Please model this.
Amino acid sequence: MTDQQPNRNALSLARVWVRSNIITTVLSIFIVLSLLINALTIGALLRVRGIINNQLEVSLAQLAELRQQKVRYNFPVDQTFTIDTTVTIDETVTVPLNLSVPISQTISVPIDTPVGQVPIEVPLNLTVPVSDTVEVPLTKDIPFKAEIPIRTDIPVDLDLSAPPLGDVLKQFEDALRDLHNRL
Model:
């Protein structure tokens, strides 16, 4: 039994050495593959970073150009407004009178005589001038009902650099510039 013991120990040591070399080789292969995958990932991330930086530069230039623009928009209005109200008039109007009134008439004037009353016909033919002012009070409720169509375009001019829209665009541009500087 002693002869087999060293043979067995030698065999076991050889097996352990082969096994540990296989494990070391496999682990080395995995480490090399992991390094290769990490290098490819880092390369892809650097390419993506370059693409994002280029797009941010283009976006910043376009946003700065946009902030210098003025926009004109014609806002169409096509509405009918209904007005239903009562207008109250309570005033005194002064009316000047300047006229001549012609009088052409015959009047009967009774005269007392010893024989009794005798009517005498007196013809009148004259013109009476009238010059006066008359105060006429007016108190009236006038109902007013109408539909007023409004069809027009209202021009709206927007300066994209002026507040509040200009401020929002400036904040957006600053945020993009900050992101570009961080990449």
Remarks:
- The CA atoms of residues 38 and 84 lie 79 Å apart.
- The chain has one domain: 4-182.
- The chain is about 45% helix and 50% strand.
- The chain has a mean pLDDT of 87.
